[in-house]
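A favour, since you know our structure tokens better than I do. Go ahead and set the record down below.
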Amino acid sequence: MLAFHLGFLDVGWLDILDILLVALLIYQIYNVVRGSVASRVFIGYLLVYLAYLLVKALGLHLLTTILEYFISVGALALIIIFQQEIRRFLLLIGKSTNVANSRWIRRWLLRQPEVGEPVTPLRPIMDACKTLSAEFSGGLIVIRKNDDLEKFTQSGEVIDAEVSKPLLLAIFSQYSPLHDGAVIIGDGRIEAARCILPVSEDDELPPSLGFRHRAALGMSEATDAAIIAVSEESGRLTLALNGELYTNLTLSDLEDRLNKYLREPGRKEHKL
């Protein structure tokens, strides 16, 4: 169906829809790479592609052939250059859907039980965070939700112990060999300590945020876990959820956000 006639072009409603969808896709991709070096590469490649469309429309065959070769090779180069951004984009799409939270999907495809799952008590975690914050002792705590964190657990020292305030404080003591890295908690137990987390490459993070906060943000970008970071310099509490950092939280704010997030569909309620 013809929408309107523009010079030598016949523009239909499907063409308009196609343009809008492509514009939306480009905008979403730009949001993923914005603020990083990759954003400049993306803009440069986009300009080259627009130049290719222009010279092709003008009938400049030699230049069109040269740009075609450049774009075909450049597509492979973009996959290599943007591998982190592509991963983040796919994770963003995956997290924006509720497929993983579907009861039927979780039961039959993911083989995850509906009932009888152990729960993680938040009270000893909150008490430990309060003490760590008051004593300006750094801490990094990962609370598993739905995603499997086994590969991160394997990067540290396996503990498999019940969650308790004294144990968490002992792990994050400056005299403990386990205080570097993160503690991973799942199903009411401390699974491992001194775990290595992925570090966020977000260039828009303020310089005041250190390595713990970057690791917390990176872990929240890669998984649906809730990550608590306690600053060693200021004692402030930070929570990372789904690629977002919530800084300067009070203990009650931290507890409320954790309760709300962990009670979302796909997980049993967590005890206090």
Remarks:
- Residues 2-96 form one domain.
